[in-house]
Amino acid sequence: MDSVSDSILIGISACLTGQKVRYDGSAKKSHFCVEELGKHVSYKTYCPEVAVGMSVPRPTIRQTEIDGNIIVSSADGSNDVTEPMQEYSEQVAQHVSHLSGFIFCAKSPSCGMERVKVYAASGQSSRHDGVGVFAQAIMQANPLLPCEENGRLNDAALRENFVARVFAYNQWLKLKQAGITRKRLIDFHSRMKYTLMSHDPLAVKRLGQILADASLAVEEQAEQYISGCMATLKIIATRKKHTNTLQHLQGYFGDYLTSQERQILAEQIHRYRQGLVPLLVPIEQIKHYLKLYPQSYLQQQFYFNPHPEELKLRYTH
């Protein structure tokens, strides 16, 4: 595996960064990816269509199903790039294990993650359940890799979920680079406890049982653990689950807070549960109490700082 640098590296469709590589010579620059997230990560750009020798500008290509096989070509069947596109995609897919995430261009016959048009052989009808050849190869070969489309990143919950997964997965890659040991696995799980709880309360125990199974080799433990961890983090954390997590955190301060401080925190959690304030409000209150009453176990929790504060991802939900 390629080494993991201090800078978080994400793969991305080149057109989303402003590169004019689309079929008509234009770009599809994503403001969030470039101007916001781009301040905290580095990008490795890919344009599979240009990579297989297609010109800019160029005739559009699309996916067509013929005898059960997906063909990537121009509408009239010419300019068939199916084989070189598959070869390129599979080659790249084997060399992205150092990436912490991937952002694809939506609806593209090469880069779309879902809802890609697939035309019938007659060309008269289409379905919308295809996957871009390049995106499919990346995701199949790297099932743990956080992946998302530019369009879906406009949804606040999906955007926060993806970015948090990227930063969590980056921590995992650093752990792997340092060398996996049982202690490091347990430490990682300890830091992830309340993050996991906010996505699936049962996952904390389930993943803990994997690490407690002494019959498993450490490599098998690591594989099972991170598979379960990343699957859990992909579940959207709801207001109800966050409230449950906040109440668990609240319990750590029972012996330290004054009655007034307890009331303030309880009220903020309640207001969050009702949808009157964003998650940031009770989180910041707890972080304030951690400064007044330090507790090392809580201070190391990924839940409090899953991504850079400047992204303001907890301001809207």
Short overview:
It holds the Pfam family 2-thiour_desulf. The protein is an alpha/beta fold and 317 residues long. It has twelve helices and eight strands.
* Strand-residue proportion: 5-15%
Helix/strand-derived category reads alpha/beta
Q: How much is the average pLDDT?
A: 95
How would you sum up the major sheet?
Answer: 4 strands, parallel
Distance between the termini: 37 Å
* Number of helical stretches of at least 4 residues: 12
Q: What is the chain-wise order of helices and strands?
A: EHEHEEHEEEHEHHHHHHHH
Helix percentage range: 40-55%
What is the C-alpha radius of gyration, as a whole number of Å? Answer: 22 Å
Order of strands in the sheet with most strands:
2-1-5-8
| Tally of strands | 8
Shape estimate: elongated
Describe the fold and architecture.
InterPro entries: 2-thiour_desulf, DUF1722, UCP037004. Pfam families: 2-thiour_desulf, DUF1722. Residues 193-308 form the DUF1722 domain. The chain has 12 helices and 8 strands. The protein has helices at 31-36, 48-51, 82-93, 133-141, 156-178, 182-199, 201-212, 218-234, 239-250, 259-273, 280-292, 296-299; strands at residues 9-13, 42-46, 62-66, 69-73, 101-104, 116-120, 126-130, 147-149. The strands form 2 sheets. Strands 2-1-5-8 form a 4-stranded parallel sheet. It has a 4-stranded mixed sheet with strand order 4-3-6-7, with no helix packed on it. α6 (182-199) runs antiparallel to α7, α6 (182-199) crosses α9 (239-250) and α9 (239-250) packs antiparallel against α10 (259-273). 34% of the residues are buried. The model is unreliable at 1-5 (pLDDT under 50).
